[in-house]
Design goal:
This protein is an alpha/beta fold and 270 residues long. 40% of the residues lie in helices and 14% in strands. It has two domains: 229 residues, TIM Barrel, CATH 3.20.20; 30 residues, no CATH class. The longest helix is centred in the last third of the chain and has 18 residues. It catalyses: (6R)-5,10-methylene-5,6,7,8-tetrahydrofolate + 3-methyl-2-oxobutanoate + H2O = 2-dehydropantoate + (6S)-5,6,7,8-tetrahydrofolate.
């Protein structure tokens, strides 16, 4: 199992792979494929819990899914994505919530959607033994402020702000940095500047690694963002299998003789 130190050492050397997972069967498949990092993302709200955004996801939700993923993972680094308002309001509560993911659910690190308010918090968490993966650019927990999910860092002022926050979080002790939905040339400049690895999602090929929501990667999502790639067609396979099951039950083809058995000793009872 790679440590956060191992991941940091991969910057500029070996491409880092990261996928989300929210349950044990998916985590097992992702782990067996050799993915470096499994992110138990607050995107579970959209993908699995039926919410329209990540905002309703709770600490208990994330803890439950982190536990399921960590129990099924042998090799990948498991990172818990801290949900909306679980950090940054009160430092003691932020640390307690993040620490719970390591202490009770066996995550190895946490991810924070970052801003100026998380620099000191990152430093304090790291001091206490909680490794922090920072996240800049498009931070979906700010959907109401953005009015959607627009690309970030598209003008010089916004780009400079992201660049400076990246430096500040590295100095605070973050071991890696997710860059989401920013111009590829900005991501390239940040990657060249930092010693810690950058992991991009919609941030171009120059990042030290890439992350996708697993539902997008395997083709389970009904809709995927423009920067994602579907590497399979799981949704179509599931639809076909479910349709076949319904047809088999309705026609009487399932269950067949091989799906059941009779106990001879019961013949005289009825």
């Amino acid at each position: 199992m790679p440590t956060v130190r191992d991941l940091t050492a991969m910057a500029g050397e070996n491409p880092i792979t990261m996928l989300t997972a929210y349950d044990a069967p998916t985590a097992e498949l992702v782990d067996e494929a050799g993915v470096d990092v499994i992110l138990v993302g607050d995107s579970v709200g959209n993908t699995s819990l039926g919410h329209e955004s990540t905002l309703p996801v709770t600490v208990d939700d994330i803890a439950r899914h982190v536990g399921a993923v960590s129990r099924a993972t042998d090799d990948a680094l498991v990172v818990a994505d801290m949900p909306f308002l679980s950090f940054g309001v009160d430092d003691a509560e932020s640390i307690e919530n993040a620490g719970r993911m390591l202490k009770e659910e066996n995550a190895e690190a946490v991810k924070l959607e970052c801003g100026p308010h998380t620099v000191d918090l990152t430093e304090r968490m790291v001091q206490l033994g909680i490794p922090v993966m920072a996240h800049l650019g498009l931070t979906p927990q700010h959907v109401n402020r953005y009015g959607g999910y627009p690309r970030q860092g598209t003008d010089r002022e916004a780009a400079d702000r992201i660049f400076e926050l990246a430096r500040e979080h590295e100095a605070a002790g973050a071991f890696s940095l997710v860059l989401e939905h920013i111009p590829s040339n900005l991501a390239a400049e940040i990657t060249a500047e930092l010693d810690i690895p950058t992991i991009g999602i919609g941030a171009g090929p120059a990042c030290d690694g890439q992350v996708l929501v697993v539902d997008d990667a395997v083709g389970l999502s009904e809709w995927s963002p423009s920067f994602a790639e579907q590497f399979g067609s799981v949704r179509e396979e599931m639809e076909s299998a479910i349709d076949d099951y319904v047809s088999a039950v309705e026609s009487g083809a399932f269950p067949a003789d091989e799906h059941s058995h009779e106990a001879e000793d019961l013949d005289e009872l009825y």
